[in-house]
Amino acid sequence: MGEQIKYARLRRKLSMELVAERAGISRATLWAIERGTPSVSIGMYAAVLHALNNMDEDLLLVAKDDALGRKLQDLGLKTKQRAPKKNLK
């Protein structure tokens, strides 16, 4: 993910200093994000994506259509079973 953020910054021809300033983080933190350092919080990633011309809107799409999650949820739902119909003779 960090590499993709770096490429997005470079494609926009934005300097590390400018993106870090827009995101309200240090240049060292941006460097850590672009290297994919796992200790950086997701909030910092979101701030950088926002600084890259509102790319953080894509974060709202995460797990929006969770097909597997819905199937697992449906398997856990209890359904009432009907009594068998009585034969009226």
From TrEMBL:
<feature type="domain" description="HTH cro/C1-type">
    <location>
        <begin position="5"/>
        <end position="59"/>
    </location>
</feature>
<protein>
    <submittedName>
        <fullName>Transcriptional regulator</fullName>
    </submittedName>
</protein>
<dbReference type="InterPro" id="IPR010982">
    <property type="entry name" value="Lambda_DNA-bd_dom_sf"/>
</dbReference>
<dbReference type="GO" id="GO:0003677">
    <property type="term" value="F:DNA binding"/>
</dbReference>
<dbReference type="Pfam" id="PF01381">
    <property type="entry name" value="HTH_3"/>
</dbReference>
<dbReference type="InterPro" id="IPR001387">
    <property type="entry name" value="Cro/C1-type_HTH"/>
</dbReference>
